[in-house]
Write a structure and sequence with these properties.
Elements (H helix, E strand, L loop, with lengths): L1 H30 L9 E2 L2 E4 L9 H6 L3 E10 L3 E4 L5 E17 L8 E6 L1 E4 L4 E5 L10 E8 L6 E3 L6 E3 L6 H7 L7
Parallel strand pairs: 2-8, 6-10
Antiparallel strand pairs: 1-2, 3-5, 3-9, 4-5, 5-6, 7-8, 9-10, 9-11
Length: about 190
């Protein structure tokens, strides 16, 4: 009987220890959002607000682009996350390679050309968190897209017009972010 009580006591201590450690870890995760971003977190997704162009119609989107193409994402680089001197994130993005299958507008490319596109989402392994700039979600590899693009003025890649407006999926996409948002009842969601 004493062995059973001793075993039960040890199990209780282990359980209490686990709960204390788990509580400490969850409060540490909460502390990273004490800067007012807590209502922007949905599961392991953080939506970062960003100033972006808004377009009243399709013509307005077209007017801001250098090229309009149909094609598919064929690969993506490791996400880029740049921290400032205070240890906060300054810049986050993912570069993806896109194979052009059809050129709708613009004469800088022909079908079969491959271009690099900056996508406004990045997964941070260190925090186990995905950052979505203005709610943007990465294109899925091998899915077809209609893209409204403009050339970066400073870098060798293309930007999607209006962050999200210029990316039109031509196939069904899975959306972890949308699923997370549907399960939350908050003003921001």
């Amino acid at each position: 009987m004493k062995k059973v009580l001793a075993t039960a006591g040890v199990l209780c201590l282990l359980l209490v220890g686990f709960l204390v450690i788990e509580n400490k870890n969850s409060s540490t995760n909460d502390e990273q959002f004490d800067n007012g971003m807590k209502d922007h977190v949905f599961g392991r997704n953080l939506i970062l607000d960003a100033k972006m162009d808004e377009f009243p119609d399709l013509k307005s989107v077209e007017d801001t682009t250098d090229i309009i193409v149909v094609g598919k994402k064929i690969k993506q680089e490791e996400p880029t996350i740049i921290y400032n001197q205070q240890g906060r994130i300054d810049i986050t993005y993912t570069l993806s390679n896109f194979l052009i299958e059809k050129v709708i507008s613009g004469n800088s490319f022909t079908p079969g050309a491959e271009i690099t596109i900056l996508e406004n989402e990045a997964y941070n392994k260190k925090e186990n968190l995905t950052y979505h700039i203005a709610g943007y979600e990465l294109m899925e590899t091998d899915n077809d897209y209609l893209l409204f693009l403009r050339k970066s003025k400073t870098d060798p890649y293309y930007l999607i017009a209006g962050v999200k407006y210029g990316k039109v999926p031509l196939q069904n996409e899975s959306s972890v972010l949308k699923e997370s948002l549907q399960n939350v009842n908050s003003d921001y969601a």
